[in-house]
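thought: fold this chain, then report.
action: predict
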Amino acid sequence: MALASSTSEPRNKPVEFFKGSNGFEKIILTEARGVCAEVYLYGAHVTSWRNEYGEELLFVSNKAVFRPPKAIRGGIPICFPQFSNQGILEAHGFARNRFWKVDDHPEPARPPPDKACIDLLLKPSEDEMRIWPHSFEYRLRITLTPGGNLILTSRIRNVDSKPFSFTFAYHTYFSVSDISEVRVEGLETLDYLDNMKNKERFTEQGDAITFEGEVDKIYLSTPSKIAILDHERKRTYVIRKDGLPDAVVWNPWDKKAKAMADFGDDEYKHMLCVEAAAIEKPITLKPGEEWRGKQELSAVPSSYCSGQLDPMKVLMG
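observation:
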């Protein structure tokens, strides 16, 4: 598959291939209105999602490392077959720091050639089989809709002779103007596990989640829609999810930001992770079974009501 030069990156086709950072192969998806997304084969990692005005909607650290085995800091890393350190594998598993392939035989059907869509495939190598001895096929479809929404659909099939279990997350880093001006709606009154307190279980008390310090929580049995309201930019991100009952909310704040070599000291102010996930109850697949998990992201102008951002039109839409 020929790769175009990365110098100009013309965006007049829905799917184009280029060389990116460190010579890694990447794919640019472009919709007719000019909305575009950038996907690296390393980690099947979405590193950019820009609206029709060229505004970046995802956060990637200026110190991100594009070099194996380090995962790319920002964008949408895929946590599989393990979230965090909840298991025997490296933190967040191995899917995010392996090279994926373009799926030449996508299922259930190949998308039309004029659609901004790419199908990627990961199968275990001998190295993965040594640390996680289960045979699987992981198919990922990344799509830009005509309206500019970004959809990631994962399909994981057990092609082994024995069952296996896994946990999962789309570790999405959203770009925000100022973390102190951001609210998350849709998780109020829910139970969560606090990773800063040995995964102790609590119930969310506020009418929205706001940020004044480090947050690292796993919300349980969450709704299919979650909204992130950015007051300064008058923008609302909406996460729609299917097959992913949990949601992680994370911001490292200042001390942890300074401790991460691939993260700028002050970058925590301009990012927020809200992750569609399946963590509390691992997914178990019998031989031949398949799991499907979908995340759809949209960014819409925020509306005002009595001086406050009103997410209800978005959440009820």
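thought: worth noting. Confidence is low (pLDDT under 50) at residues 1-8, 304-311.
final: tokens above.
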